[in-house]
TrEMBL record:
Pathway(s) this gene product operates in, as recorded in its UniProt entry: Porphyrin-containing compound metabolism
GO MF annotation: an example: metal ion binding
Taxonomic path: Bacteria, Bacillati, Actinomycetota, Actinomycetes, Micrococcales
Listed name of the protein: Heme A synthase
PANTHER family cross-referenced by the UniProt entry: HEME A SYNTHASE
UniProt keyword terms in alphabetical order: Cell membrane, Disulfide bond, Heme biosynthesis, Iron, Membrane, Metal-binding, Oxidoreductase, Transmembrane, Transmembrane helix
Example of a GO biological process term: heme A biosynthetic process
Main location: membrane
Organism: Agrococcus sediminis
Subcellular location: Membrane
Length: 315
């Protein structure tokens, strides 16, 4: 027969184990939801549904939900708004679990930052509607999603893998990886400008940024090829030195970049069909998430703060 104290300790360990598992699920849900909302937001824009709901937070001045007169555009825009609410809810759950699980200051801070920026993203979405889809506001809206995906990827890494360990790669290798991530940021930024010059404004009456779309497609391609060269260099270096996880993530990023280039070339030659443009948008944030993993995998370290309680509870 065990003592009351041993029963209590075992019970507390089981609770900690469940919270740790829930924290991992919440972290992944945070990342996936932030990627999915890029897809739903892209669907809004690419189908011309950006003003399907003319007001915010109501869909119309008289109704919170779409009315029949708005047709499919109202449904698409309202669906994106509903998913935005789900993303906020997931971020709230993530923060609560991080605090209750005593996951550490870094994870709590990351979860709080993701929640704060997600709420800010919703407010920016309102501004986008109020300003009739001005391309600069739409661009800020998308780029903030890219930042949120990057932060969510870091959050998943900290929860699942742990805090960065001591630097094991030489400084020049770290500099190469950071140059790659900078090139990725440039590609995404120029892609936002390119999209703002193209035909997919989100609504037939929305303004464009005034740049020549034919020229911008070439301007977008130049840093894209520079990024490809840098990713190839990162893979080549990782194959000879560094943690094996770093090589695996670098190869994964290379695969996504190659697919992204193929989609970009095909969509340009086919006149920017909405399906390919949507795939191009989602791939850009997936590349961002994997790029964050490439950086973090240079400094691997076991997540003692999470794994020790799990091991103790399972004993």
């Amino acid at each position: 027969m065990g003592s009351p104290r041993s029963y209590r300790e075992r019970h507390e360990r089981c609770i900690l184990l469940e919270r740790s598992r829930a924290l991992v699920v919440a972290a992944w849900a945070t990342l996936v939801s932030q990627i999915v909302i890029v897809g739903t937001g892209g669907a809004v824009r690419l189908t011309g549904s950006g003003l399907g709901c003319s007001e915010w937070p109501n869909c119309t001045p008289e109704s919170f939900t779409p009315v029949p007169e708005q047709g499919i555009h109202g449904i698409i825009e309202f669906t994106n708004r509903v998913w935005g609410g789900i993303v906020v809810l997931i971020a709230v759950v993530m923060l609560v679990l991080a605090v209750r699980s005593r996951a550490g200051r870094a994870i709590v801070a990351l979860a709080a930052l993701v929640l704060g920026l997600t709420v800010a993203q919703a407010l920016i979405g309102a501004v986008v509607v109020w300003m009739a889809l001005r391309p600069d506001t739409v661009g800020v809206h998308f780029f903030l999603s890219v930042i949120l995906v990057a932060l969510s990827a870091v959050l998943v890494w900290r929860v699942v893998v742990g805090a960065p360990g001591p630097r094991v790669a030489p400084r020049w290798q770290s500099a190469l990886v950071h140059a790659m991530t900078f090139a990725l940021a440039v590609v995404v930024f120029v892609g936002v400008l390119t999209t703002g010059s193209g035909p997919h404004a989100g609504d037939g009456g929305a303004a464009r940024n005034g740049l020549d779309p034919a020229v911008m497609q070439h301007v977008h391609a130049w840093p894209g090829y520079a990024l490809l060269a840098l990713v190839l260099a990162v893979v080549a270096v990782a194959a000879k030195r560094g943690p094996r996880a770093h090589l695996r993530w670098a190869v994964a990023l290379l695969g996504v970049i190659l697919v992204q280039i193929l989609v970009g070339v095909v969509q340009s030659n086919l006149g920017l069909p909405i399906l390919l443009v949507g795939i191009h948008m989602v791939l850009s944030v997936i590349a961002t998430a994997i790029g964050a993993a490439v950086v973090l995998s240079l400094r691997p370290q076991p997540a003692r703060a999470l794994r020790e309680p799990v091991a103790a509870a399972a004993a």
